[in-house]
């Protein structure tokens, strides 16, 4: 088992990684001194560990369609009916979307109640459960309403990964692949538990330096500007990790077009993404929310949270990844137009359908 500390000025917690670590939940709850717990789970009851205290188990379902303010309101209503107090605890058990929703509900209820995350997807274990970002979607875009609310502990039980369909494992590798360009290269040859630990250690170090996204933490959004736009444009048919993978390839091409990196480094973006079996092309057809044409994607990228004025991206360069503001739209358009396009069904793999355990988490 690996245990990675995350230490902030006024809050500290550990991320435990390994088989069976979910069974330490009762010990974690006991240390918090909680008398009651609400467990919000997108997994079957047999995969939910005992909390050691009086518990309300609420079913959830992973997926962007449920990641709304309405869901958060319903959760808070259940907290009230159960009699949850500020000294109690909320537990998430699911993928990244469940982690996001439950984290935001915990942040808002009584202006903050302790939350413990049991991430059950690879994507949630390497990214969504760590760092305290919580958010839900609006019709205009992803993660536009949220709060920073750090968990009291994160239990990344690798046994959960045995329950995932192949496409969901691939989804998680989208976040691992982008780590190659922000400080954790050469993860491809490692076993999954070590890949998770390396990704989490990188994120913990970045969050410790910049909890509130004022500088360094922006690099965690590598590949996400186009990634979020693609999710929205395809009605979330393209999963988060898949979209981030395409966004990572695009980020390399854009950095090359701006003269920030050479052609070998541009090609490295494509090669790393493909080595994980992830998509590296744009979808050729319209999604259910809007078109996936160049103009549609540029418009959606303008809604990105990082953007203050103009189009903003995290891009590779001589000093490594950094935030680049006011990128000329004509350059973005030219790079998008130059990317290959394939049918959406081919891009996501028609033989790997989304199931009820799927997770399309955030960053």
Written account of the structure:
- This protein has 363 residues and is of the alpha/beta class.
- Helices cover 38% and strands 20% of the residues.
- The chain is built from 12 helices and 13 strands.
- It has helices at 25-32, 69-82, 96-108, 122-128, 166-179, 192-209, 224-233, 240-257, 263-275, 294-301, 329-338, 344-348; strands at residues 2-7, 12-18, 36-41, 54-59, 89-94, 114-119, 133-138, 141-148, 153-157, 282-283, 311-315, 322-327, 341-342.
- The strands form 4 sheets. The protein has a 7-stranded mixed β-sheet, with helices on both faces.
- A hairpin with a 2-residue loop joins strand 7 (133-138) and strand 8 (141-148).
- Helix 7 crosses helix 8.
- The protein is globular, with a radius of gyration of 19 Å.
Strand content: 15-25%
* Largest sheet entry: 7 strands, mixed
Based on CA atoms alone, the radius of gyration comes out at 19 Å
Which oligomerization state do the chains in this entry correspond to?
Answer: single chain
Overall SS class:
alpha/beta
Number of strands: 13
Quickly list its features:
363 residues, alpha/beta, 12 helices, two-stranded antiparallel ribbon, 7-stranded mixed β-sheet, disordered C terminus
Can you lay out the helices and strands and say which pair or pack?
Blueprint (H helix, E strand, L loop, with lengths): L1 E6 L4 E7 L6 H8 L3 E6 L12 E6 L9 H14 L6 E6 L1 H13 L5 E6 L2 H7 L4 E6 L2 E8 L4 E5 L8 H14 L12 H18 L14 H10 L6 H18 L5 H13 L6 E2 L10 H8 L9 E5 L6 E6 L1 H10 L2 E2 L1 H5 L15
Parallel strand pairs: 2-9, 3-4, 3-5, 5-6, 6-9, 10-13
Antiparallel strand pairs: 1-2, 7-8, 11-12
């Amino acid at each position: 088992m690996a245990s990675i500390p995350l230490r902030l000025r006024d809050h500290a917690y550990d991320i435990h990684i390994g088989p069976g670590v979910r069974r330490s939940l009762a010990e974690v709850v006991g240390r918090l001194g909680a008398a009651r717990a609400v467990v919000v789970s997108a997994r079957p009851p047999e995969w939910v560990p005992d909390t050691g205290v009086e518990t309300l188990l609420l079913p959830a379902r992973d997926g962007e369609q449920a990641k709304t303010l309405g869901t958060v309101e319903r959760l808070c209503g259940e907290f009230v009916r159960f009699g949850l107090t500020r000294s109690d605890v909320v537990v998430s058990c699911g993928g990244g979307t469940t982690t996001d929703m439950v984290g935001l509900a915990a942040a808002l209820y009584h202006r903050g109640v302790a939350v413990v995350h049991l991430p059950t997807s690879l994507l949630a274990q390497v990214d969504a459960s760590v760092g305290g970002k919580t958010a839900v979607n609006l019709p205009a875009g992803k993660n536009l309403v949220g709060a920073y609310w750090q968990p009291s502990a994160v239990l990344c039980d690798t046994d959960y990964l045995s329950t995932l369909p192949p496409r969901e494992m691939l989804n998680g590798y989208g976040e691992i692949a982008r780590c190659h360009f922000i400080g954790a290269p050469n993860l491809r040859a490692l076993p999954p538990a070590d890949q998770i630990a390396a990704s989490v250690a990188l994120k913990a170090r970045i969050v410790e330096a910049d909890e509130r996204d004022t500088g360094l933490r922006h690099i965690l959004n590598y590949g996400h500007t186009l990634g979020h736009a693609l999710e929205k444009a395809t009605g979330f048919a393209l999963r988060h990790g898949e979209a981030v993978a395409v966004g990572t390839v695009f980020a390399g091409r854009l950095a090359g077009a701006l003269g920030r990196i050479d052609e070998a480094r541009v090609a490295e973006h494509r090669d790393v993404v493909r080595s994980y079996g992830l998509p590296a092309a744009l979808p050729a057809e319209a999604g259910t929310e809007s078109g996936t044409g160049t103009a549609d994607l540029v418009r959606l990228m303008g809604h990105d949270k990082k953007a203050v004025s103009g189009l903003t991206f995290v891009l590779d360069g001589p000093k490594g990844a950094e935030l680049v503001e006011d990128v000329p739209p004509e350059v973005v358009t030219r790079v998008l137009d130059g990317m290959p396009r394939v049918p959406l069904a081919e891009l996501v793999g028609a033989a790997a359908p989304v199931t009820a355990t799927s997770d399309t988490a955030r960053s």
